[in-house]
Write a structure and sequence with these properties.
Blueprint lengths: L6 E4 L9 H9 L1 E2 L4 E2 L13 E4 L6 E2 L7 H15 L5 E3 H7 L5 E7 L6 E3 L3 E3 L1 E7 L2 E10 L4 E4 L1 H8 L14 E4 L3 H18 L8 E6 H11 L13 E9 L11 E10 H10 L6 H12 L3
Amino acid sequence: MSNRRDLVEIFGYSPVDLTPEVRSLWALGACPFLNKECVKINHDQTIIYGTCSVTSPYGDVIICPNRLYANNYETLLKVSHDAFGTDIPFLTYGQYIEQRANHKDCIIALGKNSGKEVQVGRALSMDWVLVRMTDGQINEYVGIEIQSIDITGNYRDAWHAYKNLKPTDVRNELPTSQHGLNWANVHKRLIPQIIRKGVVYSRSNYVKKGLYFILPDIVYRKFEDVIGSDIPLLDYQNNKTITVYTYGLGSNVPNGQQRSLEQNRKIIFDLDEFSKRFTTGPNLPSGEDLDDVIKRALGVL
């Protein structure tokens, strides 16, 4: 694999894809996965970047959670089938409002792009809640958290080169991207967030299968750096389990086509075990490690 830092997908397609349909997305600033305006905008909101994925030392990685909604929210549909079965209709909030008279038993997806994002208290927003409604009453629900990875640095020069790309340009001669990846966020923000939300769901009277967590497989490997890759896996679900679905991009495709979104893993583990490993896990530095770092900083080793 090349060590070149690069942009992998812009507006859902290869940045060197010059087909008219693809370039129309650049002109519109449109996300092909949500069929609305892209959320990747610069600070003064003058440029819509549309960057879905970039290179990393571990492979191509998704940096926009909306990329995980490919094929009309197929990832959410998989969760619905896993949690509630395949024979119960899956509806967006808008579909439910229009069709509820026709469905005595159905799954309703509540989220930012369907109805509204569920917020508990002042600061705890749940990405998605799939609610099973039976005869107009809540039967059961599960939560879904969707994460990608944030970038550091910038890819402005590379992006502008691709925006003004000519058919005769050679990709390796274009400016390299100057992006980095904010792996520190895994233990600073993402893991604590999953634990907090998992605890809230575990206390609900309607939650029987805990929290589902959807993210790129490359990012989940960074979770394993913190909690260990040997966390005991379960073959059942309850209100205190976390079910992880990891995804990656499929192989490169011809111009005019999108790379597939492929599921890598499905794993289930206990919320309490996950929490314990975050605070006292096998990869947590010891007190002696801390002592040695401070001694080296002061030159007293």
